[in-house]
Every structure is written in C-alpha cells, then in structure tokens.
Design brief:
Blueprint (H helix, E strand, L loop, with lengths): L1 E2 L2 E2 L6 H9 L4 H5 L9 H6 L32 H4 L26 H13 L1 E16 L5 E6 L3 E13 L13 E8 L2 E2 L7 E2 L3 H9 L14 H7 L2 E5 L12 E3 L6 E7 L6 E16 L2 E6 L1
Antiparallel strand pairs: 1-2, 3-12, 4-11, 5-9, 5-10, 5-12, 6-7, 6-8, 6-11, 12-13
Length: 298
C-alpha cells in the first residue's frame, strides 16, 4: 500500500501470514467465510468450478479527505502456495475476477466535516505493519538454530516464525519442527523477555495470546486446539508487547541493529527439511498535516 508515493505497507509473505491468522477463527466464523476461500476439502471440490466468489482483503483504513489517495498494489501468490492438488494432479494456473474495494462512509455531514478538519490540522492513523524479513531452509538434522532479527523498529510487537514444507500441498499446513526451547537476547541483554527462556509448554499459549486475545476464555466452537496447533497449525511467536492489548507503541523499541534480537532455538531432528519464514510485526503510524502525508513511522 502506497500513500503519496511512500510505502506504508509491504509484505511479500502476506498470504502465508493471513492464512495462518484464519486458523485462529472460531468454527462459526470460518463457516461464514466460504466466499473468502475458507472451506473444507470436500466443499472446495464441490465449488471448484465456481468463480463468482469475491476475495475480501482488509487493508489500511484511509479517508478520501486526503490530497493523496492510497494505491493498492497486489502481487498474487503462485498457484502452489494457495492451491491443493487433487489425486496427484498438477496445480494449474488461476485468475481472480470481481475484485472489489469496500469503503466505510460517514453519512453525517457534521461528523464528516470534523473528520476532514482533523486531517487539515494534523492527525495520525495507527495500523499493524507486517513484513517477511527472511525465508531460510532448516536442514532436517539441525539441533540448534540461531536467528538474528536486526532491523530497527520504534515499537516491535512480535516476531512470528511460520514453518512449511519445501513442497507445499496444503496452504493451511504449518509444521512443528520439533522445537523444545527458545532463548532470547535483545540488544545484548539475555533473557530480556523470558527469564528462563521460552519452553515448549508455553508455545501454544504465546501464540493464542497474540493471534486470539479473545480466546483467553475457552469457547465451545474454537477451531484451534493444542493438538491441532502442534499437528499442522504451529507458529513460534515471540510476543514483545508490554500489555496484551494492541495499544499502539506498546511493543519493544529496537535501536541497535548490530545485535538486534538474537534467538537461540533448540530443537530435535525432523524427518525432512523445513522452510522457516520470519515475520516482524510492528506498530506503525501514518502522520498527516494539511491533508498531506507528513511521515510514516514504524
């Protein structure tokens, strides 16, 4: 997403990250999202010839009271990233029809004038900035992996590691690569977040805390469970927020890019190589003055 020629959001792993987030929806919510591509394998077979569905993307909210309207640039993923082959068939090409942008509107004239005035005098819009920092291959025999996240952020909310097989057959399969413990060093300070490191028995709770804060109380129709998490819905989440809510600016400030965040990951061997995708989630601000973009912060 670009505003006034400046990049406000750019994530080359958007489909991988957003599909994972959908695993934390309830069964009821997932059943309502057939048109957005969420469906059982059997239902996908039944509707595979139907191209009337509309893909909904929830992007940055920006009003038309600005001098520079946002530009949305979509790069579609390869077919093998989002399509499941049936019976050993090769994955073919695909196309998207009926793309739509949906906007919320303000019908009250007085309220609309007040919002417009705020963009003239100066205001900020907050949003989550997600970037795929790096993708690497983990050899199946590795038992210790060191990953360094050395990009500056004013408020880093979390580091999320998603693991997939080298050949993807199911877009909703996220591998657990036999990780037992993670030690974290931030800007040279060891155990800056977890005093004794992050053990395996905390992996599910950390992911749940970040991706589904409303799930703290168990719900009858939860889709994600502990068994599903370790079976095919795993994510290694390092939550760096000072509080559980998404208050802007509540993340960790990373200044020293030489040391940054060092993760020492202790694991057992796996049966095959896995692909590790490292995402950095940060708080971001779009700052406006005189209805023009003045700066972007993240």
């Amino acid at each position: 997403i670009k505003v006034a020629g400046e990049t406000a959001y750019d994530c080359s792993g958007e489909s991988l990250y957003e599909i994972y987030k959908d695993l934390w929806l309830t069964e009821g919510d997932r059943n309502k999202m057939t048109e957005q591509g969420l469906a059982s394998e059997n239902l996908r077979k039944l509707i595979s010839g139907d191209d009337s569905g509309v893909k909904t993307m929830h992007g940055l909210y920006t009003p038309f009271s600005m001098n520079n309207n946002p530009m949305y640039i979509l790069t579609l993923p390869q077919s093998d990233e989002i399509m499941t082959a049936q019976g050993g068939e090769a994955k073919g090409n695909y196309k998207l029809d009926n793309l739509e942008l949906e906007y919320e509107t303000i019908e009250n004239n007085a309220l609309a004038s007040e919002v417009s005035r705020m963009y003239s005098t100066g205001r900020s819009l907050s949003y989550k900035h997600v970037t795929l920092m790096r993708t690497s291959s983990w050899d199946k025999d590795l038992t210790i992996v060191n990953e360094n996240i050395n990009i500056p952020r004013k408020s880093m909310s979390a580091i999320v590691l998603l693991f997939t097989s080298t050949v993807i057959n199911d877009s909703e399969q996220y591998i657990y690569p036999n990780i037992d413990k993670v030690n974290l060093t931030i800007e040279g300070v060891p155990n800056a977040v977890f005093s004794q490191g992050l053990p395996k028995n905390r992996f599910f709770e950390e992911a749940k805390r970040f991706f589904c804060p409303m799930c703290e109380k168990s719900m009858a129709d939860e889709y994600m469970s502990v068994s599903r998490f370790f079976d095919n819905g795993f994510a290694l989440v390092i939550d760096l927020r000072s509080t559980q809510d998404d208050t802007t600016g509540g993340g960790r400030r990373i200044v020293n890019t030489q040391s940054g965040v060092l993760m020492e990951i202790k694991k057992r061997a796996t049966t095959a190589d896995v692909r590790c995708n490292i995402f950095v989630v940060s708080d971001a601000l779009l700052n406006f003055a005189n209805r023009d973009l003045s700066s972007i912060q993240y």
